[in-house]
Structures are given as C-alpha cells and as structure tokens.
Known about the structure:
Elements: E1 15-17, H1 18-24, H2 30-38, E2 46-47, E3 53-56, H3 57-69
Antiparallel strand pairs: 1-3, 2-3
Amino acid sequence: MTKNKRTDPHPLPRYLRRSDLAAMLGGISRDHIAELIEAGVLPKPIKLSARTKLFDLAEVQAALARAAASP
C-alpha cells in the first residue's frame, strides 16, 4: 500500500515571534536582533498590532543564507 503524500505547490508561510527567532539564532538578545535588522542582515518584522511583530521564516532563512555567502 502506498501512502498519499500531499505536495502543495503553495505552502503556507511560517512566521516566528522575536523570541523564536532569538532561539533559532542561538539565544541572541532582542537588542542584537534589532541591530541585525538595522544593519540590513535580517528582514524587518511584519507588524500585526502594536505589540505583535512576526518574522517570515522564509525571508529570515534567505537573509541568513545571503549573509553566510557574503565575504
């Protein structure tokens, strides 16, 4: 019997809270995340409300790949 694997050509974007992003980056501080955004290393977060900001995981991964590839 074969299992049906669903392959979605348009996967839903995944979003991270600042704390999840910090954990993903080895536990860096909120201030360091702000510095990386200011320097253009990380993308700006999406502002959902006055207190809620989310980062698009795909954008973060692409930014980190660019940063790793640059000399």
